[in-house]
Write a structure and sequence with these properties.
12 helices; about 35% helix; eight-stranded antiparallel sheet
Length: about 400
């Protein structure tokens, strides 16, 4: 039975996620309060670990601030935590208003705003694709003169591949910029460099990365979102040149961006033409798309649980010890399904450690001591899913 002084955590999320964080935070002896959207009240939250829940219909920063101020009269909150990418900046503003410890607005921008993170990375000597903001016409033309297409148009504040467009020439570039009208300042363009995309999922304590796992997207998020493909990722072989290089580069990014403690999900690309490594983007949260489950099955480290333990230990000024890490390999395959509840009984290899139970989806995670065996299974499953189950819908377009 824990004897630690209960701390009051306010977990903020406008999406249904973070159950393991909430449960772990409660297990550390804390009081846990959830702030979420009213439309999510019937989702399966870990109610046994939640002391109270506060709902908002639509997020209005001023109204939310006043609501928390009212609750603060009787609940002395010790920590605000954003559980989703879209809540990082909102919670940073709340921390600053209530003078709460943790990441403020300036640092949070490096983990949220794609333009801010590229500018900071470039300033700190981290390799990034050539980019420009869309603020100034002369700068845009100069970029088009000096950086050959194709380019990517990217929204500064969206997550994953949402709103990304490929641009093939200057005429197309200006058509898109003009169509954006008064929203153009919320976008950037960067050089499209074909290559393999990797993600590094990590934990940081006292400014040092204490755990990281390098994985490779077998189809890039952009290809899956815009081409209707099958989503796949797999753990990289530990000790290889690329695994070591990305582990080091991830630590450099965390230092450059001022990450002091918590979880992060960071993406890099290896140029097909030159083999150069480029930083793409990062976020101060656990990766989505069930990548956390893949990381846990390969390493034994539940990123959500350990993030909660790190937050609690940091606030109490106590030491934190990472659990023992396994060095197995895992891979995930996920697709939309043409069946509401697909029958996956034909997938019966003993390496299957997780199955997706979500309507109109099919997905599995496989685990093995062998990275090659993981790839063999993923290739087989991808072909079978594409033939017998796969469905696709157009990618959401929030850019125009």
């Amino acid at each position: 039975m824990t004897t630690k002084r209960p701390l009051n955590f306010l977990c903020v999320t406008t999406y249904h996620k973070g159950a393991d964080f909430i449960k772990s935070c409660k297990a550390e002896g804390n009081n846990v309060y959830l702030l979420t959207k009213k439309k999510l009240e019937h989702e399966v939250w870990p109610w046994e670990a939640i002391d109270d829940v506060f709902y908002v219909e639509n997020w209005n920063q001023s109204d939310v601030t006043k609501g928390i101020a009212y609750k603060f009269r009787t609940i002395k909150f010790d920590r605000f935590v954003a559980l989703d990418d879209f809540d990082v900046e909102k919670v940073a503003l709340l921390r600053e208003h209530f003078r709460m410890p943790g990441m403020g607005r300036t640092t949070s921008h490096y983990f949220r705003d794609k333009l801010a993170m590229r500018m900071k990375a470039q300033e700190e000597g981290v390799n990034v694709p050539k980019f420009t903001a869309l603020f100034n016409d002369v700068d845009i033309n100069a970029y088009a003169d000096n950086v050959s297409p194709p380019w990517f148009l990217k929204p500064r504040l969206e997550a994953s591949a949402t709103g990304i467009k490929k641009i093939n020439n200057r005429e197309e570039l200006w058509q898109i910029v003009n169509a954006l009208q008064d929203e153009r300042d919320n976008y950037l363009i960067e050089k499209f460099a074909p290559g393999d995309v990797y993600h590094v999922d990590s934990l940081t304590v006292d400014g040092n990365v204490i755990f990281s796992r390098v994985s490779k997207y077998l189809d890039t998020p952009f290809e899956v979102a815009h081409g209707g493909g099958v989503f796949r990722s797999a753990t990289c072989k530990i000790g290889t040149k690329i695994e070591k290089a990305l582990t080091k580069m991830n630590a450099e990014v965390m230092t450059a961006f001022g990450m002091q403690f918590g979880a992060s999900h960071t993406e890099f690309i290896e140029s097909k033409d030159t083999g150069e490594l480029f930083f793409l983007e990062t976020s101060s949260r656990v990766g989505g798309a069930n990548l956390a489950e893949m990381v846990e099955l390969a390493s034994g480290i539940n990123l959500w649980e350990e993030w909660a333990r790190i937050e609690s230990a940091t606030l109490r000024k106590e030491g934190y010890t990472l659990p023992k890490v396994k060095n197995q390999y895992a891979g995930i395959v996920v697709s939309l399904s043409k069946f509401e509840n697909p029958d996956t009984s034909s997938f019966n290899d003993p390496e299957i450690a997780w199955r997706m139970h979500k309507k109109w989806h099919i997905g599995m995670i496989v685990v093995s001591e062998s990275a090659d065996r993981v790839m063999e299974l993923l290739d087989d499953y991808t072909q079978r899913i594409a033939t017998d189950f796969h469905a696709s819908i157009p990618a959401p377009d929030r850019s125009l």
